[in-house]
Amino acid sequence: MKRTINFYLGHFALWYVGLSILVALISAFVYDVGGAVRLFIAFVASTTVASMFVKTERRAPSDDEQRKLIFGSLFIWAALNLVVGVALYFTGGLLQDIDATSGTLLAVLVFVFSLLAAVTLLFLYLSYSFIARKQAEKLNVKR
Question: For residue 125, what are the contacts with CB-CB under 8 A and spacing of at least 6?
Fold first, then answer.
């Protein structure tokens, strides 16, 4: 059954939000897992969506589909993180003790966000290309 790329991007957003909420709840009520775990949420969400793509389409994504999935997922990741960051800033949950009017602070935030985006881009590439191809190869062997 042929699905559109938007279908898979919607599933990425749902998985990303769901896993983020799960990690936040675990951190708040059970054990503080730390910020590094948040890096892997996009990887788990994109790997799940890549697996869904391979099972539904019975093949790995083409180069054009990979590009759309990677950059669409990166856009969703960036938009969701910016919304959360802005909400935390205005509710006092982020940067409470730091002078937020400093230009240096803005430069540091942009640098850190860019670094996180680069790492997330790498994870998305691994999921939608390498892992999807490996799963498609396994699928073809089983038939």
Answer: 70
- Spatial CB neighbours of 77, under 8 Å, sequence gap ≥ 6: 16, 42, 117, 120, 124
Helix (H) or strand (E) holding 99: none
* Cα–Cα distances in angstroms (integers) from residue 36 to residues 15, 117, 139, in the given order: 18, 14, 32
Q: Are 42 and 16 in contact (CB under 8 A)?
A: yes
* CB hemisphere CA count around 120 (13 angstroms): 26
- Contact (Cβ atoms closer than 8 angstroms) between residue 69 and residue 121: no
Q: What's the pLDDT score for residue 15?
A: 96
pLDDT along the chain (143 residues), means of 10: 89 95 88 80 95 93 95 96 82 63 73 92 95 90 45
Rounded to whole angstroms, how far apart are CA atoms 129 and 63? 8
50, amino acid identity: A
Look at residue 140 in the predicted model and tell me its pLDDT: 78
So what's the pLDDT on residue 37? Answer: 84
